[in-house]
Amino acid sequence: MIFSNARLVLPEGICEGLEVIVAEGKIVEICERTDGAAIDLTGNYLAPGFIDLHIHGALGRDTMEASLEAFRTICDYHASGGTTSLLLTTVTAPIAEIVKVLRAVRALAGSIRQIAGVHVEGPFISRSRAGAQRAEFIRDPELDSVAELMAYADVIKVVTLAPELPGALDLIHRLREREIIASGGHSDASDEEARAGFESGMRHVTHTFNAMSSARREGVYREGGLLEFALSEPEIMCELIADGHHVSTTLMKVLYRAKGPRGICLVTDATAGAGLPEGARFSLAGLDCVVSGGVCLLADRSALAGSASRMIDLVRVLVKTVKIPLHEAVAMASTNPAHALGAKTKGAIEIGCDADFVVLSPELDVLRTFVAGEEIYRKS
Description:
This protein is an alpha/beta fold. The protein has a single domain (49-347), classed as Metal-dependent hydrolases (TIM Barrel, Alpha-Beta Barrel). It is built from ten helices and 26 strands. The chain has helices at 68-79, 95-108, 143-150, 168-177, 191-200, 226-232, 249-259, 311-320, 326-333, 335-341; strands at residues 2-4, 7-10, 13-15, 19-23, 26-31, 39-40, 45-48, 50-55, 57-58, 61-62, 83-89, 115-121, 156-161, 181-184, 204-205, 216-218, 221-223, 237-240, 264-266, 281-284, 287-292, 295-298, 304-307, 357-360, 366-371, 374-378. Strand 14 (181-184), helix 5 (191-200) and strand 15 (204-205) form a beta-alpha-beta unit. The longest helix has 14 residues, at 95-108. The radius of gyration is 20 Å and the shape is globular. The mean pLDDT is 96.
């Protein structure tokens, strides 16, 4: 396969006049014009496929269903937003229900190529920063519950946890040993507790600005929280839900100035409301939720309940509202999450990488999505 007449979106900028040649699902050559029959992309952008590290659902289906039908619906919908790899994300629930998802992903991931593993969000989180997570299932990381999850370390790629909990630092050590990302989130950690998490191996934070501690007074002094620690520490990768609802434009600019284009991973945190019409009701871990104003909320509107967005929606917000260059926004949706996962053949248009692509119009609409050179979505 030869992809021609495209503007390549590379980490350093936009490049024209080159073709991408694919064989057996891999990029084998990037060169000037060839004589072979080509897929003419008519001057549109060709970008690396997007990688979503934090995604719960879509079209009324939820990861916690632990079924092939739910997983396929989620992956198919998000392919329309340019996502070629994703981590199915659990919620705070009984350990047995989380294990059910892990078991299903282990059995079914081979039949859906977009599934790159699981992000376990909770139950080892702060009750005071639960957000839309169910407080009755929150627990400390005791040995038995950790052991049940670690039996599926081959499919777990990220665990969101509060580093201040008893036993959390030991869990971070164990995750680090298995090359699983320990991500601070849903946390009320002090500056000192956040630093302890970092020194134990925490190198990632979950949906920055949302459900995390920030600067506060301790006696007559003021100290940072998990937010400020993450902003100040160059080795920490920050998730960002750039849907225009979870985080304001000013705060997104603050994050960009603090972390730069290589320190941010865009995530949708999409729940089952993604793709449903305005006013639609859906369930998140048994909680009644609603799609309202382009975002997902608990039905009583007391808290956000994930997003209703696809990855392209986040890229578009960064480019058009935050005024971040397209190649940097695309890197936040592809290259950076690939690096976080250690996925060396993902997230870049380079020789030897997987032929996972998204074709974008000048208006940043997704026109086509490819996984290993095979088209999985085409705009009708």
